[in-house]
Design a protein that fits this description.
Number of strands: 0
Number of helices: 4
Strand content: under 5%
Shape: elongated
Membrane topology: Multi-pass membrane protein
Order of helices and strands: HHHH
Pfam family, one: DUF1516
Radius of gyration: 15 Å
Subcellular location: Cell membrane
Largest sheet: none
Distance between the termini: 21 Å
Keywords: Cell membrane, Membrane, Transmembrane, Transmembrane helix
Structural class: mainly alpha
Mean pLDDT: 91
Low-confidence stretches: none
Protein name: UPF0344 protein UB32_03910
């Protein structure tokens, strides 16, 4: 299940930048389709993440990682929405960067994750 979870969030990250690129390029229909597929990947990330969380003995660090993961998903959505509305999103980009780095560190440093750190 870890591989499904990692695949889901990597594809979501790619779709996030595709949706932003399509919107910035003026392809609103393509951006809307990419955004809807991105929302499907949010669900996949949540399902696989909660499956992993509840398949192990609950540890506070895994709960923290889940909370930061929810923060990343909310930043995905808020940045895409603000970009579509042509509103400023610089604070959201800072939050996104911090949350993404934190969730990657937590995910790869915990015993259930891949041993990168």
């Amino acid at each position: 299940m870890i591989h499904a979870h990692i695949t889901a969030w990597v594809l979501a990250l790619v779709l996030f930048f595709v949706a932003l690129g399509l919107h910035k390029g003026g392809n609103e229909k393509g951006a809307k389709i990419a955004h809807m597929v991105l929302r499907l990947f949010y669900v996949l990330i949540l399902l696989t993440g909660f499956w992993l969380l509840f398949s192990i003995t609950i540890d506070i660090m895994y709960v923290l990682k889940a909370a930061v993961g929810l923060w990343v998903i909310s930043m995905f959505e808020m940045i895409v929405i603000r970009t579509k509305k042509n509103e400023k999103a610089s604070v959201l980009w800072i939050q996104f960067t911090v949350a993404l780095l934190l969730v990657l560190y937590l995910g790869f440093s915990l015993p259930l994750g891949t041993d990168l750190f």
